[in-house]
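User: I'm preparing a small set of examples for a lab meeting where we compare how different chains pack in three dimensions. I only have the primary sequence for this one, and I'd like the structure in token form so I can line it up with the others. Please keep the answer compact; I'll paste it straight into my notes.
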Amino acid sequence: MALPDVAVVGGGIVGAATAAYLADAGARVTLYERDGIAAGASGRNSGVVQHPMDEALASLHRLTLDLYADLAAASDRAFCLPSTPAGLLFLTPDAERARAGAASVAAAQPHLRIDVLDQAAVAALEPSLAPGLAACRVEIGYPVTPAAATHAFADWATARGATVRTSTAVGLDLAGSTVTGVRTEAGIEPAGAVVVAAGPWSPALIDPGGSWRPIVPLWGVVVAVALARPPRHVIEQLGIATEPGDEGGAGPHQPKVEFSLVTAGGSSSVGSTFLLSEPDPAEWEARILRAGAAFVPAIATAPVIAHRACARPFARDGRPLVGRIPGLDRAYIAAGHGPWGISTGPASARQVADLVLGRTDAPPIPATFDPARFGLVHGS
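Assistant: Understood. Below is the structure token output for the 380-residue chain.
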């Protein structure tokens, strides 16, 4: 079977990985990115490949870990996960809440190793933390340099013959309900198939009229600081809403700061915010550092390296859209991974690449990710 020319739109982790898997199979691929590779959430996240509690997302995460091992081999280890997880501490001043948190994790993911630590145990394990904190410790979390995996996938795609075009904004070219390629400033560029992997901007690219909006941007601000003795674990305040079914997990959020900390590549990324409109990172820096210092006192005096903001692509039900774009022919989407892009996105990329390639031996994409659950897109 002849393989199609494929246009992949979006240079984040999902788009770069999709281009790599398609090119590796011999497809002729052009990757279009309006800014630069990893310019959005894939390069501005906190920097942790983390196990979700929702089983639908956890299945993507487990496959992603295997795919990262393949990426390490294909990229001559330009990107490589740590050999073991750092461990995640969910912190709370309430020991009873820590026990309840552990029970909740065990109910969702019973195969994970989970420990409840009282205040004395936390102080012994992580001396840099503020006193009086209990924790639920879960054996998950791989700290990584945020953009490293995305760049490694883009390099892999290029090495396999894909063309990567940055600073190139595109729209879909349609003949009725059939996508025939992309439109650029230079004109129409035909393609046998188009994969939209443009994160929160995917719905507007697919349906400029605005009636199909299954993905919304929730903005995060991260402040990178230099801690002399950072915690060894990934740190989160217990109760941050990021999962499907969490209160507010994929819906409107009140502007607030919740604490997370990940150390990788010589800096510690302090967050987290979930905001409905694009923020000025400088305006949030003091609030984020103040919230962080309540858990890690050294944050209050640590040198600030940088701050950054990104729009996380939240699907309205908290689960990504992976598959054929409903109502359009020769068009596919892989987007909507929320805060789990580098943790689950490569698996979705592999799934949509297999679909485009027509691989009948590939496992079917779970129905829970079917884009048609949000209704049809009407071509124009």
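A couple of notes for your slides: Residues 166 and 274 are 28 Å apart (CA to CA). The radius of gyration is 21 Å.

User: Perfect, thanks.
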